[in-house]
Sequence to fold (232 residues):
Amino acid sequence: MPKHDRARRAFLKGAAASAGAVAGAAFVAAPQAAQAADRMPGMTTPAAAKPDDQGVTVGGSGQYAFFNDNDALAVAALTERIMPDAPGKPGARAAGVLNYIDLALAGAYEDQREFYRHGLAQLDASCHAQYKRGFAALQPAQQDEVVEALAAGKAAGFDWPSAQAFFRTLHTHTMEGMFADPVYGGNRDFAGWRLIGFPGAQMQYTEADLKSDKAFTRVPITGLQAQAKRRA
Fold:
């Protein structure tokens, strides 16, 4: 069994237990989340450019609300190795996890901006020292080696955040982006919910639904995003 398949199964075993709680949590500020349908598939319209408390312009580069293009490529690649795509099983890219993290850092997770900036800079330096190229440009097998080193705290060149702390945060945010309500920018087309068989919010459950011991599969799956559209 390929390593990434084993990692996916281990990831989902823990993620499925908390998906219901994650699905309803408000991780991203409403103004950013409300823009989620206005960009290319899975990406939101960037917020107006403005300096943050470190004097760095947020939302002023390319198509992202927080990330510059190079960092976005690295985060997209990292989250995809944490939650890889497989036939019939969407991964982080398909679920729009990058978009979720980008919006979170431009909003509710703004206190973690420096954590990400430093972590990604250290990752870039570490990969260039070992492979002469950035993480996103590595072969999948090389990316897996780097991710395993991060998870074990053995990746070279990390001070703050530590390699392990950086990985754990990315892992947590990947899970949130996979399984939170789509209104927060991830879980595109309910990819994460469908993956674990979570039906989302339903208007009602019949007596037969409540008594059944079979997986609940009735469509449509609805979430906060769909509810907001109905109220508009």
Q: What stands out?
A: Residues 100 and 221 are 20 Å apart (CA to CA). The chain is about 50% helix and 0% strand. The beta strands are 50-51, 57-58.
